[in-house]
Amino acid sequence: MEHTFEIPDEPVRPGLILKKLLREKGWTEKELALVIGKPVGYVRDISNGTQRVSAELSVDLGVALGAPWDYFAVLETRFRISNLAQSDRLGNIERVSRLFSWVPVAELVRRGWIRKAASTKALESRVLEFFGISDFEEEIPSIARPSNIAALTSYERGALTAWLRRLTWESERKSVVGQFEPHRLYESIPEIMGLMQTRIDFRDIAEKLSAYGIRAIALETLPKLYLEGATGKGPVLGVTLRKRKVGEFGCLLQHMLGHLILKHEGHIEMTPFCSREKEHDEAEAFATSHFSPTDNAVSMFLHATDDTPTKDEILNFSDEHGIHPGITIERILRRGVELSTRYQAKIGLKQAPPGKSTIAELNRTILRSGK
């Protein structure tokens, strides 16, 4: 009866199959050794499992026994893999893979949000500690949660979760001077706008907002996470520090303050989506109608200048409204009016806040002062 050389469902040591085939052919190990040109001890080691089947040996055995040339190589691979699958080493790899798939661990370590670890167990423990949980199945304490998490990639979900957790942690360390009341923040708009006239420094604004019971925190964003900021209970106002033009940063602050005045807690501003589109639109409408320069004022200004304002006209308009010219430029650009990059640079609009201070220095200053 001809042998079919089927691969067993369960992994099996190739030597056991070899012994069976030798019995069927009526061969001894010595005879097989003569056929393939190997010492008999070599064949005996194959049968006992102490000699691995190489690609070359699989071909030799296949030719000698009439089996497919890769037959013994497949048996060997399946048997070795089944043994490896039961090792602790693979368990460690699986755990690390789960960590790195869940959040950008390497980036969190690089930023000092999580300390380096010498072992998988220690790294896992520090990740759990960072998120304030004891098990990966627990819900992570956070000041905000995206409502349409399915719209994000797995990396974006992990990076956003990590950023929000760090914002939550920073907010818990930060004290405020006053008590938050939306109407008081609304009444303070002219005062806040005064901080956006000649320069826009987040430290000054964070100090002012502290007097109104708001924990204002600036954090680096994570790579490939196009996050602008978030609001949370407390209330907390978090913004990402990345390269922006002054006007973009100023408009973002106005927009985020609009969320707080309108009591939008747990809102996340992120490109290309926001956690709640309706709240985003409401905050933008509020910011452009209550913060200078208002949409109405910009519309009248552009009409008066035939949509081609000069440098002096922009500077004069900004001065009249008590606002940094960068914000005026940003409002103009958002209306679809084109202004060249070179033209914008002429009036100093490309300096990104917070000036010469590094992000690390900024955070240390804010945390040290308790503001």
Stretches with pLDDT under 50, minimum 5 residues? 348-371
Largest sheet: 5 strands, mixed
Number of distinct helices: 19
Provide the spatial order of strands within the biggest beta sheet: 1-3-2-4-5
Helix percentage = 40-55%
The proportion of residues in beta strands is 5-15%
As an assembly, this protein is single chain
> H/E element string?
HHHHHHHHHHHHEEEHEEHHHHHH
Rg value: 33 Å
Straight-line N-to-C gap: 87 Å
Total beta-strand segments = 5
Helix vs. strand class: alpha+beta
Shape: elongated
How many domains make up the 3D coordinates?
3
Calculate the mean pLDDT score and round it: 85
Structure write-up:
The chain has 371 residues and is α+β, with helices and mostly antiparallel strands. It has 3 domains: 14-84, Orthogonal Bundle (434 Repressor (Amino-terminal Domain)), CATH 1.10.260.40; 89-140, no CATH class; 178-369, no CATH class. 55% of the residues lie in helices and 6% in strands. The protein is built from 19 helices and 5 strands. It has helices spanning 14-25, 29-36, 40-48, 55-65, 71-84, 88-102, 105-110, 120-130, 154-173, 182-187, 189-194, 202-210, 246-261, 277-290, 295-304, 311-320, 325-333, 341-346, 359-369, and strands at 215-220, 227-232, 236-241, 268-270, 273-274. It has a 5-stranded mixed beta sheet, with helices on both faces. A hairpin with a 2-residue loop joins strand 4 and strand 5 (273-274). Helix 2 crosses helix 3 (40-48), helix 6 (88-102) packs parallel to helix 8 and helix 13 packs across helix 17 (325-333). The longest helix has 20 residues, at 154-173. It is elongated, with a radius of gyration of 33 Å. It starts with 13 loop residues before the first helix and ends with a helix.
